[in-house]
Amino acid sequence: MTPDGYRRVLLKLSGEALMGEREFGLDPAIVTRIAGEVKAVIDLGVQVCLVIGGGNIFRGMSGAASGMERATADYMGMLGTVMNSLALQSALERIGVDTRVQSAISMQSVCEPYIRRRAIRHMEKHRAVIFAAGTGNPFFTTDTAAALRASEMGCDALLKATKVDGVYSADPHLHKDAVRYERLTYLDVLSRDLKVMDAAAISLARENHIPILVFSLLKPGGFAETISGTGRFTIITEAEG
Question: Phi and psi (nearest 5°) for 64?
């Protein structure tokens, strides 16, 4: 168990995180590095599950905006998350981490169906579990899927990997005077519209008392440092202090 007492955590990655400097698709070097970050945390004795977005392959909202029916576009986005999940599974297993992909949409030729008790058992056996295809329903984001799976798995924390080292009052790449927060409450995030995760995800985490830790994926070792309480991150909980 880590110094902060995290026994089981969920890591939420955006699909864009897997692109690197590319305009779309996967950067194998980035996928390999992320796999190494996950392995480092598992080596600490922490059980890890993951949810990955599909924005690098297909974003449902952009499809809907161009005239496609929203539900169809969202299902296509879910299929993109399965592709990302299989890519990360391959990278993890290359470095010795047993990994299972569970999909909310049945496709048993390539991955397991989502079964809560089976997923928990995999993690108890020190396997990484990647939850693919979101919630299996259109109109729900992968952020909401992450909060849902973290709740179902009884996770001690939900970690959101981003391009910056925490939550800021505005985009720090565009606003040099943006203020970085060390701690926030769920209500702070909702009332200030801080765009950490969508409102449904924040509300679900709040309802199930799951702290959200926002950290930078760009810093090597950032995931393990955040879990150990030594890195730079913003923690979102019920009360400040």
Answer: -65, -40
Is the sign of the CA dihedral 139, 142, 118, 208 positive or negative? negative
pTM over the 0.90 mark: yes
Q: How far apart are alpha carbons 146 and 150 in whole angstroms? A: 6
Beta-bridged to residue 129, according to DSSP, are 49, 100
How far apart, in whole angstroms, are the C-alpha atoms of residue 133 and residue 80?
A: 8
Q: Supply 161's token pair.
A: 């990997």
* Cβ proximity of 181 and 189 under 8 Å: no
How would residue 3 be classed by pLDDT, with cut points 50, 70 and 90?
Answer: very low
SS3 sequence of 70-129? HHHHHHHHHHHHHHHHHHHHHHHHHCCCCEEEEECCCCCCCCEECCHHHHHHHHHCCCEE
**Every domain of the chain and the residues it spans:** 8-237
Provide the CA 138 distance to its chain's centre, in angstroms. 18
Q: Does 20 score more than 50 pLDDT? A: yes
Q: Rounded to an integer, what distance in angstroms lies between the CA atom of residue 120 and that of residue 227?
A: 20
Euclidean distance between the first and final Cα of the chain, in Å? 23
Architecture of the domain whose range is 8-237: 3-Layer(aba) Sandwich (3.40)
Q: Read off the pLDDT of residues 176-200 as tens digits, 9 standing for 90 and up.
A: 999 999 999 999 999 999 989 999 9
Taking the CA atoms of residue 13, residue 10, residue 182 and residue 180 in that order, the dihedral angle to the nearest 10 degrees is: 10
Is residue 165 exposed (0-12), middle (13-18) or buried (19+ Cβ within 10 Å)?
A: buried
Are 35 and 92 contacting, i.e. CB atoms less than 8 angstroms apart?
yes
